[in-house]
Each structure stands twice: as structure tokens, then as C-alpha cells.
Amino acid sequence: MTDIYNAYINTTEVKGNGSGILSGIRVSIKDNISTKDIETTCASKILKGYIPPYDAHVITRLKAQGAVIAGKTNMDEFGMGSTTENSAFGAALNPHDVTRVTGGSSGGSAAAVAGGLVSMALGSDTGGSVRCPAAWCGVVGLKPSYGRVSRFGLIAYANSFEQIGPMTTNVRDAAKLFSVIAGHDIKDSTSVNKPYDGNVVPEISGKTIGIPKEYFGEGVDAGVAAEVRKAIGKLEELGANIVDVSLPSMKYALPAYYVTCTCEASSNLGRFDGVRFGPEPEMNLPWHDAYTKVREAGFGAEVRRRILLGTFALSAGYYGKYYVKAQHAKQLIAKDFAAALETCDMLAGPTMPNIAPKIGELTADPLQMYQADILTVPVNIAGIPAISVPCGIAHKMPVGLQLMGRMFGEETILNAALAYE
Ligand code: GLN
């Protein structure tokens, strides 16, 4: 396999012992999902050479169904980014135009699928990391409801938001892969007992789809909006009932997300100190100097920025001002979604406000990078499922239609996506 898109950090061909619905199917795995005896780096220098002694729950399930683990995919370091440029192993390249980014943070998984190297991959989605690269690379990506897929063995970035999800060339494969990974796991205390049977059928007629006006607000590219409106028109032709809705608290989504995720990251990344994980520190140094040296050399700029932001926001005196406030904002956003989804079976809008930018275009300004997540992070805040399906071409690049469902309503959005596809 020649990896011209820098989609992989490590290529492997490890066959599971079981046989089942994934028998012989090669599946690539984002490099923040632990794989027994296969190096797992989170695209960070600090984990270079780390070989997990166990498989993540999703990997155990994949192997039991006969899947072949075909490599560990490139990503933004620890999942922090929207382009897969924040990788210690270099940026992944978009198979539709190699001068553009794949999106992130699961960009390697998207490039591997879009570039025809595998038909299925796993990504993780904390604030859009499955859906963003799926949209920008023209593949299908599903972010499951919070708790539906075990996070055991997923190296945590912001654990209250994230889920592992399938990235595939088509909706049927997404449903198939999702049916393998969904279900209860005793090793993840947030895991719920909601398996998915994989019986996806095209079904959209009679469903009510809400179009939140905020999903077509300021900053959404006109070419992208036009393709998504066309897709919504097609859903209407297929018998869906289209209604306008509003999510007034969505304006708080980005600040609430970025405060909370940096707080969680600053705590989760504490274990990379050279003692528990990471290269061994110099033992003759005072402990804080030893830790500092390991962390300074091991973490990239974006990871350090987020650890600092999170540590600041959690510090005594600021905790109430930032962290607690962000939690309140999250509740308002979740309430907006719950209210809209009381009357609608699902919501629809663009996945990303723009097409994939050129390499280097977004990394110059972190705030601009965070802005790109405006249409994906609200879903993680609400905990609901969402799928991105390719829906057209704008400025010669793929555009994604995002369908957002009720909590544990994956079946409804998968069926709608199949009807659309
Ligand atoms: N771009 C978002 C972030 O940097 C989302 C990343 C993700 O979902 N892992 O936090």
C-alpha cells in the first residue's frame, strides 16, 4: 500500500481471530485508539514507541467479527485540531486536492477511505473530528450518541464529549461498522446498553426535518449553503416534511466547548509525565524540572496551548467564571436541541461552513481554526448522534450534509442518509 496522502502513522495487517460480518475486511484505526502490540501514538512525540498492552473495546469487537486491522491513521495530536496539520508526523493530504487539508482530527482515516486504501475506518469525534474530515474528503462519517460506543481504550482528550465512530465510503458500511462497535461495555462507566442491529433501510417519507436557521448563518460559504439546500430539497422530494427551527443558544457553543475541552484535556494529559507514560525523565533533576523537560519536548504547540488554557480556567478564582459558566451554557444548548427534536425527527444543515482549506491556511490563527467547528460542536454538547454524508461539490471540493438525530436515534438518521444516498 503506498500512502501518498500521509494517511497512516503505522501500516499493519493484523487479522482478528474471529469470523463474522467483517471477515477479511480491512479497517484502519485512528491512532488514539489502543491496539494491543501495535504502536499507538496519538500523533504525538510523547507517545512515540508506546505499545499498548491491551485492545480498546472497539478493537476487540472488530477482531471478533474477523476484521483486519489495516494501520493506524494520522490525526491532530491527541485529537486537538480541525485539519490534521497538528500531527508530529506531518499533515495528511486531501485525496481530492493534495494542496488542501483533510480536515481533522480524524483526517488520516478520512484520507484512507477517500483515497481508496480501505473501505472502512474508525475515527473519534470530540467536537466534530469524524464529521469534519468526512465532509471535506467526501466520505460518510457517524458520530454516535454519547455512551453508545465504549470509550475503553480510547486515549482521552475531552471525555465528556467524545465517541468513536465509523468513517466509510457509503451509508450501508457505516451502519455495518456501527452495529459492530455499539453496545454496552462494563469497562466504560458511561456506556449504555443500546446495541444497533445494522438493519439499515431507506426511510425518509413522512419524517419531519428541522432546519435550524443558525446552520445557515454568518460565516457559512454561499457555495456550501447552496449544495446543502439542494440536498434538503431532495429530502423533501423523497417525502420529508421540512420545517424551520431555531437554536438560540448556539452562539455559546464554541466558547462553552473550548473552555470545557481544554479543562478536561489539561487533566487528562497530566499522565504524560515521563513516569506513567512518555520517555523516561532524567532522574537526577528535581521532579518538576524532569517533568517539564519531558512535556516540553513531547507536546506540540497546540497541545501546550490547550493545557495552559485549561489549567488557567480551572484554577482557584477562575473556576466559577469559566468552567461553571461553560457548564451552564452547555445546558442551554442541550435544551435547545431537545426542544427542536421534540417536534422534529431530525435536524439538517451543513457539516462544515466551508470547503477544505489549503494547507497552512487555518493553522496560522488558532481562533480561526476553532471557528471552523461551529456546526459540529453543538452536537457533542447535546450528546446526540449526527451523520455527515457527501452531498455535492462546491469550489471543486466535496460538501457534507449533516443529519442530527434524537438521543440514541442513530437508526433514524442512518435510514434517512441511506434514502438520500
Ligand atoms: N476541532 C475540535 C477540537 O480541536 C474537535 C476535535 C475532535 O473532535 N477531536 O477540539
From TrEMBL:
InterPro entries: Amidase, Amidase_CS, Amidase_dom, AS_sf, GatA. Keywords: ATP-binding, Ligase, Nucleotide-binding, Protein biosynthesis, Transferase. It comes from the Archaea. It catalyses: L-glutamyl-tRNA(Gln) + L-glutamine + ATP + H2O = L-glutaminyl-tRNA(Gln) + L-glutamate + ADP + phosphate + H(+). The active site is at K30 (charge relay system), S105 (charge relay system), S129 (acyl-ester intermediate). One of its GO terms (cellular component) is glutamyl-tRNA(Gln) amidotransferase complex. PROSITE patterns: AMIDASES (PS00571). Transmembrane segments: none annotated. Pfam families: Amidase. Residues 15-414 form the Amidase domain. One of its GO terms (molecular function) is glutaminyl-tRNA synthase (glutamine-hydrolyzing) activity. Its EC number is 6.3.5.7. One of its GO terms (biological process) is translation. Allows the formation of correctly charged Gln-tRNA(Gln) through the transamidation of misacylated Glu-tRNA(Gln) in organisms which lack glutaminyl-tRNA synthetase. The reaction takes place in the presence of glutamine and ATP through an activated gamma-phospho-Glu-tRNA(Gln). Belongs to the amidase family. GatA subfamily. Heterotrimer of A, B and C subunits. This is Glutamyl-tRNA(Gln) amidotransferase subunit A. It comes from Methanocorpusculum labreanum (strain ATCC 43576 / DSM 4855 / Z).
